[in-house]
Every structure is written in C-alpha cells, then in structure tokens.
C-alpha cells in the first residue's frame, strides 16, 4: 500500500546528530554560571545552559572544529524596567565568566568527532 511506502527509515544519513559533548566549565576551580555556545564554521551559534555544578551537555553538534564561547547569565537588573525592584535570584549560582570568553577569538576551540566526548573548560581570569 502507498501508506507503507511513504514510511521510510527516519534519521538515517550523513547529517545524523552526534552522540553529544558534555563537561564542566570552571573558573579557578569554581563552577561557572551561564551558557556554553558552540560556533560552527558557518557561523551558527548552538548554545546550551550550564548547570549549578558547572556541568553542560549538548547533542547534535556537526562534526569538525568549532569555536567555544562562554557567556554569563544577564544581570537580573538588566531585564527589569527602570526603577523596578529585582525579584528572585539569577538562574544559576556560579562564577561569572570573564568578558574575554564571550566573544569569538577567545582561543577556545574543540574538535567534534561525532562520538560521545567530554570537554571540560577551565577559564582563567
């Protein structure tokens, strides 16, 4: 029947996602708050959140060398209307990454192989 023919294998092919990259982001041994952003050779930015322990995991990165950026959480006050009182706390309680790691050219690179990988990122002030 036509319905059966229309259902083929899904997810097969050379563009299948990788197994993923995970690791910890630290600054002087302390967990960093914010997000890790992988920038592909064609300029796509693929962000993933950093957990309270500094850990992160991202799936589906394309194979090849990527630039790695580390961005902090935006300040709570920056998201509020002028004169408003901040309510709550930042989303993660960790160190703020130094400004130099938030822009391309920070020198953090990683080679994605397509298998499960661990990539710990140790930042310096």
Characteristic terms for this protein:
single chain; 125 residues; mainly beta; five-stranded mixed sheet; four-stranded antiparallel sheet; 1 helix; 9 strands
General description of the model:
The protein is mainly β. It contains 1 helix and 9 strands; from the N terminus they run H-E-E-E-E-E-E-E-E-E. The chain has one helix at 2-6; strands spanning 21-27, 30-31, 35-39, 45-49, 55-58, 64-71, 109-112, 117-118, 121-123. The strands form 2 sheets. Strands 1, 2, 5, 8 and 9 form a 5-stranded mixed sheet that branches. Residues 1-16 and 86-92 have low confidence and may be disordered.
List the SSEs and their pairings:
Blueprint: H1 2-6, E1 21-27, E2 30-31, E3 35-39, E4 45-49, E5 55-58, E6 64-71, E7 109-112, E8 117-118, E9 121-123
Parallel strand pairs: 1-8, 1-9
Antiparallel strand pairs: 1-2, 1-5, 3-4, 3-6, 6-7
DSSP, total strands: 9
Largest sheet properties: 5 strands, mixed
Share of residues in strands: 25-35%
C-alpha termini separation = 64 Å
What low-confidence regions span 5 or more consecutive residues with pLDDT below 50?
1-16, 86-92
Report the radius of gyration as a whole number of Å. Answer: 18 Å
Q: Which H/E pattern describes the elements?
A: HEEEEEEEEE
Helix content: under 10%
Mean pLDDT: 79
Query: Which overall shape is indicated by the principal axes computed on the Cα atoms?
Result: globular
Give the structure's gist in a few sentences.
The protein is mainly beta and 125 residues long. It is built from 1 helix and 9 strands.
């Amino acid at each position: 029947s036509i319905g059966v023919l229309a259902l083929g294998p899904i997810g097969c092919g050379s563009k299948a996602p990788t197994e993923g990259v995970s690791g910890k982001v630290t600054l002087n041994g302390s967990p960093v708050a914010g997000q890790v952003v992988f920038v592909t050779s064609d300029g796509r930015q693929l962000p993933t959140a950093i957990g309270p322990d500094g850990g992160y995991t991202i799936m589906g990165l394309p194979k090849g060398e990527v630039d790695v950026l580390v961005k902090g959480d935006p300040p709570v006050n920056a998201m509020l209307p002028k004169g408003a009182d901040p309510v709550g706390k930042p989303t993660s309680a960790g160190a703020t990454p130094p400004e130099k790691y938030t822009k391309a050219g920070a020198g953090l690179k990683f080679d994605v192989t397509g298998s499960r990988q661990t990539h710990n990122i140790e930042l310096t002030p």
